[in-house]
Design the sequence.
């Protein structure tokens, strides 16, 4: 359902695809900015202070960082789908059709 909605609403309109691509690019950038360093610091805190860090919210913060990572991944996937759609639409409009596989030659008549 989400796939058909996204295709019908976004990918069928080049301007909407471009806007979605830009928004997902910024969402990916904002979500992944310093994510590695925050994860490293959080796991270091949990490893060093153990249950005290868990009681102070370290585990919740780790789960939030992991969720942010997956949301960033989803934004990246939206970006790549939009990029694919725009590149193929522009290439087709310019007359550059993708190469299709040639049918394999039938060597049975040579025997």
Sequence:
């Amino acid at each position: 359902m989400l796939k058909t909605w996204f295709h019908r609403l976004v990918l069928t309109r080049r301007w909407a695809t471009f806007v979605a691509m830009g928004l997902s690019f910024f969402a990916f950038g904002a979500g992944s900015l310093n994510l590695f360093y925050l994860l490293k610091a959080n796991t270091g805190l949990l490893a060093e202070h153990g249950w005290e860090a868990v009681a102070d919210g370290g585990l919740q913060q780790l789960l939030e960082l992991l969720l942010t990572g997956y949301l960033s991944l989803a934004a990246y996937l939206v970006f790549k789908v939009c990029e694919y759609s725009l590149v193929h639409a522009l290439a087709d409009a310019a007359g550059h059709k993708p190469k299709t596989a040639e049918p394999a030659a039938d060597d049975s008549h040579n025997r």
In short: Residues 65 and 102 are 48 Å apart (CA to CA). DSSP finds five helices and no strands in the chain. Residues 13-92 form one domain. The helical segments are 2-11, 14-32, 35-49, 51-55, 58-93.
